Structures are given as structure tokens and as C-alpha cells.
Amino acid sequence: MAEKDDAEHPIPLEWRPLLTRVAAAFVEGDFGLQRGIEGVAPVDTETQEWIAESIDAYGETLAPLDPAVWESSCCAWDGANNHWRLLVDLTTETEPVSDLVLHARLSDTDPPMLTIYAVYVP
Question: Per-residue pLDDT averaged across 82-86, rounded?
Fold first, then answer.
């Protein structure tokens, strides 16, 4: 589990499979996660559209996450809202680590719930 402090930390190993499944769904064009991923909230229509537009504007095709993304992806604790903020670099067919990031939060609940907020270039 990540530290609950003011610093940024690497994405913990135990969270990576869940984030990898989300990225795989996005590769298949399932921006709403309609097939369902346990532990991940469905993505609302407005956010789905924003994700699709952001990826389209980037001009590259998403690919499954490359292991190199974990070197630069990070999380930080947001104690005021009781969740971790996550930024996960995405992979494209031509870039193992692209400028596109997946922005999400992971609740500090039992079980935890991942909520997707956006895909964009920071």
C-alpha cells in the first residue's frame, strides 16, 4: 500500500494489475468499462467522450501497458478526500511511455474502488 503522506510515490505493485485491465479495456475502445472490471466504477458518458476525444487528438493508437510506464507513473495521498490520486502513463503503438496519462483515484475503503476521471496530456 502507498504511504499516506504529502509525497508522490510509485504505483504499488498490488494496484498495477487493476490499472493494466483498465488500460486494456481502453485499448479495445471500451472507455465506459461496459464489460465491468471488479473494483472499478463505471465511467460516465461525459468522461467517456472526453477520453475518446483526448486519445483521438493525441493522434496515436493505444496499446497494452508497457512495463516501463511504472517507472514514471505515480500516486499521492489526498487525506482531505480519503483517496489516492493516480497518474498512469499510457502506452501507444509507437511509444512505450506516451505523454497521455490516465487520471484516477482509488478510495481508501474496503474494498477499494477505482474511479476514472480522465485521459489527457498534462
Answer: 95
57-70: pLDDT as tens digits: 999 999 999 999 99
Please check the confidence at residue 31 and state whether its pLDDT lies above 80.
yes
Do 100 and 54 form a contact (C-beta atoms < 8 A)?
yes
| Inter-residue contact 120 to 98 (CB < 8 Å) | no
Cα–Cα distance, 34 to 112 (Å, whole number): 19
**In the chain, beta strands by DSSP E:** 8-10, 62-63, 74-78, 83-89, 91-92, 101-107, 114-120
DSSP string, 50-61: HHHHHHHHHTS-
Q: Report which of 3, 1, 4 is spatially closest to residue 79, judged by C-alpha positions.
A: 4
pTM of the complete model: 0.94
Do the beta carbons of residue 71 and residue 44 sit within 8 Å? no
